[in-house]
């Protein structure tokens, strides 16, 4: 006999966690950096100060999206909102955006930060580009 599973009674509502993991909640920082890593499966963002010390981080999977919903532009914009709230809680006024990866969430994350009242100093693309490295994977056919 296998394990018996008991169905849990619940509201059926899917709620998203709106908190970014904070490392040191007491420090006030005027200017910081937001690192956006967007892969085909997830979007991960980190908020750091100018020296590179992590202040907060959030990901689409971390705030409650599961499976293929993690890679959507909507999930990336929600992650950006979460990190924006963490930045405002620290008194941040200016940010630099550093983008890495080729996922679908990268553009919507940039737009989400652009719509907020933080001053964007610069946007840099850190996506690694091979100078004729190893042979690429075969093209996916659906």
From TrEMBL:
<dbReference type="InterPro" id="IPR001971">
    <property type="entry name" value="Ribosomal_uS11"/>
</dbReference>
<dbReference type="GO" id="GO:0019843">
    <property type="term" value="F:rRNA binding"/>
</dbReference>
<feature type="compositionally biased region" description="Basic and acidic residues">
    <location>
        <begin position="11"/>
        <end position="21"/>
    </location>
</feature>
<dbReference type="GO" id="GO:0006412">
    <property type="term" value="P:translation"/>
</dbReference>
<keyword id="KW-0694">RNA-binding</keyword>
<dbReference type="GO" id="GO:0003735">
    <property type="term" value="F:structural constituent of ribosome"/>
</dbReference>
<comment type="function">
    <text>Located on the platform of the 30S subunit, it bridges several disparate RNA helices of the 16S rRNA. Forms part of the Shine-Dalgarno cleft in the 70S ribosome.</text>
</comment>
<comment type="similarity">
    <text>Belongs to the universal ribosomal protein uS11 family.</text>
</comment>
<dbReference type="GO" id="GO:1990904">
    <property type="term" value="C:ribonucleoprotein complex"/>
</dbReference>
<feature type="region of interest" description="Disordered">
    <location>
        <begin position="1"/>
        <end position="23"/>
    </location>
</feature>
<comment type="subunit">
    <text>Part of the 30S ribosomal subunit. Interacts with proteins S7 and S18. Binds to IF-3.</text>
</comment>
<dbReference type="Pfam" id="PF00411">
    <property type="entry name" value="Ribosomal_S11"/>
</dbReference>
<dbReference type="InterPro" id="IPR036967">
    <property type="entry name" value="Ribosomal_uS11_sf"/>
</dbReference>
<protein>
    <recommendedName>
        <fullName>Small ribosomal subunit protein uS11</fullName>
    </recommendedName>
</protein>
<keyword id="KW-0699">rRNA-binding</keyword>
<keyword id="KW-0689">Ribosomal protein</keyword>
<keyword id="KW-0687">Ribonucleoprotein</keyword>
<dbReference type="GO" id="GO:0005840">
    <property type="term" value="C:ribosome"/>
</dbReference>
């Amino acid at each position: 006999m296998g394990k018996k599973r008991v169905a849990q009674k619940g509201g059926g509502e899917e709620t998203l966690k709106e908190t970014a993991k904070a490392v040191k909640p007491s420090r006030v920082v005027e200017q910081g950096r937001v690192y956006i890593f967007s892969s085909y499966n997830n979007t991960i963002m980190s908020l750091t100060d100018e020296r590179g010390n992590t202040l907060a981080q959030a990901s689409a999977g971390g705030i409650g999206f599961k499976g293929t919903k993690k890679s959507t532009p909507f999930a990336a914009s929600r992650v950006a909102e979460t990190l924006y709230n963490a930045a405002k809680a620290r008194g941040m006024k200016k940010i630099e955006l550093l983008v890495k990866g080729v996922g679908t969430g990268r553009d919507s994350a940039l737009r989400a930060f652009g719509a907020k009242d933080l001053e964007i100093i610069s946007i840099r693309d850190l996506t690694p580009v091979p100078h004729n490295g190893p042979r690429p994977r075969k093209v996916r056919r659906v």
